[in-house]
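Task 17 of the worksheet. Students: predict the tertiary structure of the chain below and write it out as structure tokens. Keep your answer in the requested format; marks are given for formatting as well as content.
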Amino acid sequence: MIQCCGARVRICGERVEVVSEPRIQHCPLHESLYGLKVIDREAVKKTVETKMQTYGFCCQHRTFNDSTVVPYGASEVIKTCIETKLLDCAVVACEGAGTVITSSPSLVQGIGAHLTGIIKTSPIKGIIQHIKKNNGSVLDSTTAKIDQVEGFKKAAEMGFKRIAVTVAGFQAPRITKVRMLEKKLGVEATIFSVCNTCTTEKDVQHIAKADVVTASASKIIREQIGPKALMQVGVTIPVFAITERGKKTMLNYLSRFNDKIVTFRTNLPYIVENRGPTLKR
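Model answer:
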């Protein structure tokens, strides 16, 4: 079960079923990646089927191509920060494997390149084998459970000190739990709040404890997290650094970003009309 464009999608073998209406009507990023101007149930189904056919998403033959890049994406940022030694490892979620701990920049990017929010998954042998062969550990290969709190704890037990953790918006309370564990375990958590399209008011109190927050298509994130940010990267899908650690992380990424950028002082969030996703009314 995944979340795509705000819709819940159930994948069983080769069958894709969109079980709820998408929240988004149009997204510039989605259009650039998949060529779909209008997002409805059929478009969501087509998107997931395209990922399955092209990249082996949710399949035994899943590819882990780290050359696909989404500017300012969480996996791209984490990859760079592991390469530059700012971070030691990452705790991420992967379909068919659940929570994954890895210090491999390539594996982080390969997992995250075409990933959307995973709500629940079951083990896929080929995916788990690839992860284990490429410097990754799976929290529970029997159940493929997704538990970023336990993943963070395991990463600390493995000896990592500076740990990136991605937490989807629908699991926001786990951000607070990781923060509490951080002090107890004596390690550093850099928390990325991702997949926030369906964020609720209750989620915001937890998301505010992250370091880096992806706005996705969420109006709540723009309105309530945006003003707290120390830094914003991107306009179409803003990414907010809301702590000094988050700001340092994003600046580290931008130092190796291979495109032209502009910086200036302003009040945040910096929103340009008609540049972001359009939500359904």
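Marker's comment: Residues 91 and 101 are 5 Å apart (CA to CA). The chain has ten helices and 13 strands.
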